[in-house]
Amino acid sequence: MSFTAPIQLPGLALDPRWYRRAVFYEVMVRSFVDSNADGSGDLAGLVSKLDYLQWLGIDALWIPPFFNSPLKDGGYDVADYRTILPEFGTLEEFKDLVTKAHERNMRIVIDFPLNHTSDQHEWFQQSREDPDGPFGDFYVWSDTDERYPNIRIIFTDTEESNWAFDPVRRQFFFHRFFSHQPDLNFENTAVQEAIFDVVRFWLDLGVDGFRLDAIPYLFESEEGNGEGEPPTHEFVKRLRSMVDRDYPGRVMIAEANQWPREVAAFFGTEDEPECHMAFDFPVMPRIFYSLRSQQANELVRVLSETTDIPDGAGWGVFLRNHDELTLEMVSEEYRQAMYGWYAYDPRMRANIGIRRRLAPLLDNSRAELELAHALLFALPGSPFLYYGDEIGMGDNIWLPDRDSSRTPMQWTPDRNAGFSDADPGKLFLPIVQSLVYNFTQTNVESQLAQSGSLLHWIRNVIHVRKAHPTFGLGTIRVLKTNHESVLVFTRSYAGSGSMFGDQPETVMCVFSFSHNPVAFTIEDVDMAGTRLYDLFGGAVFPSFNEEGALTLTLGAQSFYWLHCG
Ligand SMILES: OC[C@H]1O[C@H](O[C@H]2O[C@H](CO)[C@@H](O)[C@H](O)[C@H]2O)[C@H](O)[C@@H](O)[C@@H]1O
Ligand SMILES: [Ca+2]
């Protein structure tokens, strides 16, 4: 497979707010390409596919942890923050990845699990063996397992307590996630400095930013629930100020699985900024709810309420990622409805969520996949794709935990789906061979050969989005309709002051979640007389009348993106 590089000067475009317009792609090194036939994906393999990612229109990669690790939590159990897991490659290969990505104007954002380490980390080993030594206070130790009673358990499938007894130190240590992932003690300023040093280490190597994993949980609290406690925000502010001062143009992305106001708090304020971006956990499950309930009201509500965020900050919008589709931030009623629709087999559930990939969740419905992506690319913020979702990859719910959706990327219909030349039994996870999503049908090569494939459709939408800066930079306004299944909003961008010389533009985005065709009326006095043109083909649409009303029709589960003239 060869990809023609678009004409552009090599190197990174100098835009300090690049992340506002970027299309991100989450790629797990282990799952993408195996360059040396040892059964595991690696950095050299990822480098070999940069042309593909550039062809797709990807501006930035988010790479989950690739540090030394026992891999008991997909690498989120870090044993050494400064070295790379040998099966993934070397530091030299990582530098090569950064250089080659930058040559293609593609940024590299790495994942940074800073709340905890693996129990195999040298800091923990020293902490448990020498309580009075330099690392004695690096973790949260206690003589009882009864402190912090208000702090919830996140990994409800495996953990019964946030405390585990260490037989070496003969004390309990606190762990927010698995019991092999002791939480670092952020009350200790030496821990804070050690984390700053790690951040500088990777920024000096040229990375363009960090996804700050599990960021709400840094500081515990006796009274509160230990999520977004004030000292956690103070720490993030200090980190931001160092990054802005010493490494301008690099980004911090908050992974805060919380209610809207709490997530938005991780942007900080204009005067005291925290993260440049935060994942939009409030919106994500509501997209899936709307698709099945055929009701737009939950999305209308959450989008109408969208909290103001500081200038320059941006949401990270996503449909799926390497974790379960989390249902922690929806009401019990909605959660049960979502389990009924999307996880009817208990095997599909993990913790408080659903461990399935996008295509199987949507029953491989092309209409739903297009509708979901049209929303992803039109909502305020920058879209994050999950590797393989661009070809509608399936999952394997017989694999444990979240491995169900971390199987090897399907490149070709050949052995090991073109992921690896290893003996098939040697692969770190088996290739998906299910009836519907079998790699012989679902793979990049086959989809490249079909102009109407999902892959070509997604690439086209990405390029249309990129031609209209309002999707990345514009404001949102939700418009009223008389149909419960229809969501309408405008994205407006004044166009001034941009180094790209962008024109002002308003785009109206219309989505129907109904499983049948619909006719509906939009009423908005400010739109009176507005003329509309389809953004994809340029077709002229009916205009808003002088009272600001417009009647349109839409097919089942479909959408329009309309330029407002
Ligand atoms: O390092 C532990 C975990 O950290 C992230 O966790 C997030 O995922 C959880 C669900 O899997 C979610 O419930 C929690 O709120 C998040 O912080 C990371 O993405 C996980 O892969 C990792 O296991
Ligand atoms: Ca390999």
UniProtKB/TrEMBL annotation:
Span of domain Glycosyl hydrolase family 13 catalytic: 26-426
One GO term of the biological process aspect: carbohydrate metabolic process
An MF annotation (GO) of this entry: maltose alpha-D-glucosyltransferase activity
Pfam families: Alpha-amylase, Malt_amylase_C
Native source organism of the sequence: Cryobacterium glaciale
Cross-referenced Gene3D superfamilies: Glycosidases (3.20.20.80), Golgi alpha-mannosidase II (2.60.40.1180), Oligo-1,6-glucosidase, Domain 2 (3.90.400.10)
Catalytic reaction annotation: D-maltose = alpha,alpha-trehalose
Keyword Endoplasmic reticulum carried by entry: no
UniProt similarity note: Belongs to the glycosyl hydrolase 13 family. TreS subfamily.
InterPro entries for this protein: GH, GH13_cat_dom, Glyco_hydro_b, Malt_amylase-like_C, O16G_dom_2, TreS/a-amylase_N
Stated name of the protein: maltose alpha-D-glucosyltransferase
Record keywords: Calcium, Isomerase, Metal-binding, Transferase
